[in-house]
Amino acid sequence: MKSLENKVSEIENEQYNIRSEFEEVAHMFDKDSANLNKISKRLEKIEYAEIKNCLRIFGLTDEENEAADKTKQKFVSDVYNVAVPISPLQDSRVLDIKRVGLFNKNSNRMVLVKFKQYDLKGEIFKARDRLRDSGIRVSNELTMSQRNKIRDLSQRGIQAYYKNGVVYQRQTSTENRTFARAHRRLDQDKAMDAANASTLSVDSAEQHVD
Its domain of life (predicted)? Predict the structure, then answer.
């Protein structure tokens, strides 16, 4: 009987030790996870600061081996002059402009523009309805984390976009213009899907997505 009690006591002590070790490991894991989360948020802020003045443009006619100067000319004529028709573009306001991805004769590559200051990007965004009427669509550049979020939602059948750092679901209305423009925007949509972009839609009801 005494031997059995000792055996039970040993088992209980072993269980206690295992539980203590598990709790210690779990605490260390939680601490590491918290640190990783802090690091991720810091990296996100750094990345956002780098891209906040960037703009994605879809629908600009594309050419194989297109030079950067040619891309910039198309941006000025088809985007800038539509958005800001009364003020010539100063070269210093655009830090960089380039096509993204490989040339495909069946769809236009996205154009990524980086502005010196945010105000010009804002002016172009304000003109997005006029640009859309001419077949041009614009969207914010996204961080890696945001692109992953959009990709995840897309795989779940949810169309979403970011606005002021918050992700929203785009709900299609039967009265909006999406269906009427479906054929004209097909190539642009393919390019946007390939680039994992999100677009703003004034015809859509905004719904926050967790």
Answer: Eukaryota
